[in-house]
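Chapter review. Work through the record for Integration host factor, beta subunit before attempting the end-of-chapter questions.
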Amino acid sequence: MNKSELIDALAEKKGLTYKRAEEIVNIVLDTMSDTLVEGGRIEIRGFGSLVVKDYKAYIGRNPKTGEEIEVKPKKLPFFKVGKELRERINKS
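Structure tokens for Integration host factor, beta subunit:
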């Protein structure tokens, strides 16, 4: 499912216009993004949680040449699936 399919599903299930459903989805996604940028955590019971993990710099290798390269530190979002969702997926 992509963003436009999510908007379509929300509009259909709740009887909203596409424009209104799009506004709602954008507000939710923007709020979630802002929370992660600020270093916060998102937890949706039964679905999962999102956190930002810090990765330190390290020396890696270029797979083509074998040359050592420095990989800079970075932050990446990390999703941990909730127990209810994991169980629901494994039942099917």
